[in-house]
Amino acid sequence: MTGSVQKRFLTGYFGQFSDIYETLRSSKIKEERNTGFYESEMKLVEPEMSHLTYNIRKLFNSCNPILYNVANYYIETQGKHVRPLVVLLISKATSIAPKIENWEDVLYNKYNEPISSSNIVNDEDPDKPLSSYEISMNMAETDIYPSQRRLAEITEMIHTASLLHDDVIDNSHIRRGMPSGNHVFGNKMAVLAGDFLLGRASLALARLRNAEVIELLATVIANLVEGEIMQLKGIMDKEDNEYFHFRDILSKYLKKTYLKTASLIAKSCRATTLLGGCTSEITDNAYLYGKNLGLAFQLTDDMLDYTISEDTFGKPVKKDLKLGLITAPVLFAWEKYPELGPVIKRKFSNDGDICRTHELVIKSNGLQKTKELAEKFCNKALDSLNLFPVSPSRHALEELTYKILNRAK
Predict the structure, then answer these.
(1) Using the 8-state DSSP alphabet, how is residue 174 labeled?
(2) Domain range enclosing 174
(3) For every residue of 178-228, which 3-state class applies, written as one string?
(4) Can you give the pTM of this predicted structure?
(5) Among positive and negative, which fits the CA dihedral 270, 289, 391, 155?
(6) Residue 180 to residue 129: CA distance in whole angstroms
(7) Which of 39, 121, 238, 373 has the most CB atoms in a 10 Å sphere around its CB?
(8) How many structural domains compose the chain?
(9) Which helix (H) or strand (E) segment is 175 a member of?
């Protein structure tokens, strides 16, 4: 980034939106919203999705313009909002499912109320109280409960915080086709903004007043860190000899993928059915749907790193190899070409390792095997929907599953 462009970006950093920031933001949002890839699914929850970004901005509102602008930069340069979309569709699909008794006590109003005394919660910031904001939507418009809508917002906030932190760890310069937050605002501010989002998400989560839901989403935050540590450490331990057991390594990879990607989707799906008062049979299957969908989503992401351009993907291609990270296509290529073992173990650090690995992935059946594994998880996700009542929302979840498997970005 040139000095003049960076200077204008930094204008937004200190509380004003620069011309370049506005131009990039507007063009990117228009591009994302016009893709139409999930258009039919979005229509079923359009009232909720149309207010999502506005409500999230209210939840992380702060009198500190720097924190607000860094967090808002990622919220505004939004992706397809797959995670909140899944949460809302699960909520709608299970709204007519059997319910447990006495489950409606805190659905409508208490999620907006602080638990502690307001003069304690807002002690240092009385002008910007740490309160949840009323959702500007009439309950008559939808059969999704306010607490479930709030959960969808919390899910997206946690995801956005993880992107801010991931880009710092990976030293990324591009996110969703735009300069990444750490590249624009610096690593320190990106980390702090991610922490701030997690803090505000935790506040909103506590006000849902459901102990299991709080426990689920709290473990998600821990899972994200555990998955990142597994990824940084590498799934081939240094003490292993060169003759690795392929299935053991693949199992480690899938565990890392669950922690880093699928956990948030899986536990959010379970959480929203808990907020909807569903029976254990429904909540268990909602979790399995989210888990398998999340695994399929990441496996598809792994394939896209080899099959599309950087401009289409919205982030650097070959990034995982450059970072020394092992993904499913590489593992399957290694199964066919054992000479990749030492290359993988040294994390593609020698000259020519990245190009050679890329060639062998393309030459092997690595991409096809990855596709087949993703299809396997998609089928498991679809099986989990069989206990849901037949409805347009259940059908939308089925269609969404196919689209995630066959997406091109």
Answers:
(1) E
(2) 3-26+35-405
(3) EECHHHHHCHHHHHHHHHHHHHHHHHHHHCCCCHHHHHHHHHHHHHHHHHH
(4) 0.83
(5) positive
(6) 29
(7) 373
(8) 1
(9) strand 174-175
